[in-house]
Design a protein that fits this description.
The structure is a single chain. The protein is α/β, with parallel strands linked by helices and 658 residues long. Among the domains are: 2-126, Immunoglobulin-like (Sandwich), CATH 2.60.40; 138-145 and 570-657, Golgi alpha-mannosidase II (Immunoglobulin-like, Sandwich), CATH 2.60.40. 20% of the residues lie in helices and 29% in strands. It is built from 14 helices and 31 strands. The chain has an eight-stranded parallel beta barrel, surrounded by four helices. The chain has a six-stranded mixed beta barrel with strand order 11-26-27-28-31-29. Helix 12 links the parallel strand 24 and strand 25. Helix 3 (284-293) runs parallel beside helix 6 (342-359), helix 8 (395-410) packs parallel to helix 11 (478-489) and helix 12 (508-523) runs parallel beside helix 13 (539-546). It is elongated.
Length: 658
Amino acid sequence: MLFSARGLRVLVLLSSLAAIPLLLAGCGGYGSNGAGGGGGGNPPPAPMGFTATPGNAQVTLNWTASSGATTYYVKRSTTAGAETQIATPTSTSYTDTGLTNGTKYFYVVSAYNSYGQSPNSAEVNATPVAPPPPVADVTITIDPTKTKPISPYIYGTNFYSGNTAPQPNLTLDRAGGNRWTAYNWETNASNAGSDFNYQNDNYLSASNVPTEAVRSFVAGDQGAGLASLVTFQLQGYVSADESGPVLRPFPNLARFKQVIEKKSTKDAAPFTTAPPTTDAYVYMDEFAWALDQKFPGQGIFGAAAGLPGITPAHPTFISLDNEPDLWNSTHEEVQGSTNISSSNYIAKTVTLSEALKDHFPNLIIFGPVNYGFGGIYSWQGDPSLSPTPNGANWFADKYLAGIQTASAAYGKPIVDVYDFHWYSEATDGTTRVINMTGSSLTDAQIQAIVQSPRSLWDSTFTENSWITNSVLHAPISILTRIQSKIDAENQGMKLAITEYENGGFNHIAGTIAQADNLGIFGSQGVFAANFWPPNGTYSYALAGFRAFRGFDGANASFGDTSLQATSSAVQNVVVYASSDSATPGRIVFVAINRSNAAKVTAINGQALSGTAHLYQMTAASAQGQNPVQPVTVGTMPVSGSSLTITLPAYSVTTIDVR
C-alpha cells in the first residue's frame, strides 16, 4: 500500500506494523519551533539577518535565505515573545500592512521545508509612523486676532429671477441697469436707452398699477429669502408713455416727465398710492412711501420717521440711479450729448437723499454707482477735475468730501455706501477677460482671468490693461484706494460693487475668479456685491458662489467673520479663512490654486480641532456637471494649529473644520 506524508512517499507492507511509528516520527510538526527529522533529510536552519523597517501604517521585514527552505512563517505580536503566525511567504521579505501608527510590533520568522520547521529567528521590533508632511510649496499664515465681520450681502446678483437655474444660495438681488434710469413708478413705463433704440415701452411691467415693477421684484426676493436693492431715478426725467423709440434730436423731452425729489416742494397734496398720471411730474419721496405701503407692517426701508425701530427680515436698499457718468451715451434721449457735471450730480444726490431720508431715516442709500474706473477717477473726463494717480483729486475724493459736508449739515449720513461697477479691464495682451467666454482657453487667457481679481486689493499686482498702462502706471488696488479715501474724507461709509464680471464663464478659470472675488469681498469688508449675469451660459461662474454657499449640496456656508490670511505666493495660491459665530470652533477655509501645477499648501496659525470635510472643484470634476458644483473628496483629522493639503492645479477647495 502507498502512503503519502508531506512529500515522503513510503511503501509499507501491511504486515510490517513496526514501520508505522517510524513514518509518523518523520512528520515535522507544522507549528513547531523544533526541528523534526527522519526520512534522510533535515529542516532548514533558522533565518539570519532578520530586520524590521517601519513605514506609514506598515512594517517591512527582510531576512537572509535559509538553506533548503521552501517557505517561511512570519509571526507577529504586540507583546515580546508571544508571536503568532500571520503569513507564509516563499521569498525573503514581507510587508505587514494595515498597522496602527505609533504601536510597537514584535516579529520572528522561521523557515520550513518538507522535513520540518526551523527554530525562530532572533526577535525584532518596529513602530510604524506617519510620514512627515511634504515640504510646502506655499505657506498661508492665519492671524485669528485680526478679524472683520463678513457682510451677508456680498453674495448677490442682478435680476435673480432671470438667472440660470438652479441658483446658488444667494443673499441680495439688484434691480439695476440702464432700464431703470427713466423708470416711471406711476405707470411702470421705462426707456431702454442705448441698449435698444432709446425706446419707451412696458418692458419692466405690463401692469399700470403704480410701483408694480418694483413691488413684484421685492416680493419675489422676499419669497426667495433675499434682500433687495432697487433703483431710484436721479437723472431728472422718466418715460411718459410706452410708445416705442424716441426720435432725435436729443435730448427729446417731449415724451418724458420731470422728476421732483421732494413732493412738497411742488405739490401740497399728501402722498398717495394712486397718483394722477396726467400731470407733468413724478415724485421720488412719494415713490418710496408708496412702495413701503405695499408691504404693510414690514418696514422694508427700516423704521419710518417717528415710528418704533424695526429690522426687516429682508431689507430693501435704494440705489441712486445707474452709471450716471455715462448718461450722455446710455440715455442721450434725456441727457443729451453733454454729460451732467460732477458738481451738479453731487448736488442732485444731496437733494434726493435728503428727501428720502426725511421720511425713512434708517434707509440705506447707495451712490454714486460709477460705471467703472473712468468714472471713479475723472467722472469720465469732467473738465473740472484734474486727477493724478496718487492724488486726493479723483472724482471719488470730490464726491466723498461733498457728501460728508452735506451729511454734517443734515445731521446724519445721506449716502451710506460708495457703490461702483467693476467689469475687469484686464487682458492677455489682446483680449479683455470679460470677452473670454468659451470652454477652451489658452494658458495666457486662463492666467489673465484667474489673476484679474487681484486688482481689487493687491498692491503688488499690475494687470495688463489701459488703466495700468496709460493712467496709473502702477497696480490698481481699487478697493484699497477707495477705502483709504473713505477713511480720510468720509469715515464710516461702506463699499459696494453692484455689477462685476471677470470672464471665464464656461471654464474652471471663471470658477476660480468668482470664488476669489467673494473671498476678497469678505476679507476687505465690502458691504454688498452683485454679480452681473452675462448673456449665454455661465454655470462655471455661478460655481464660484457654491464654494462659499451650499458647498455640501445643502446649506453649509462660509463663516461670518473673516480671519486675516497671508499667502507666501499669492500669484499661485490664496486662502480665505473664516470663523462661525453660530458654531464655536468651526473654521471654514476656501483655498484657491490658480497655478497650472498642484501645490502643497500649509495653513498655519489657527487652532483647529475635529475633522476637516473637503469639497473641491477642478476642471476634471466639473466635466459633465450641470450645475457645476463642489464634490466631496474626503475628510482628514485635524488638531493643533497647522493643516497641510495638496491643492490640485486650477482648483477651488472648501475646507470645513468642525
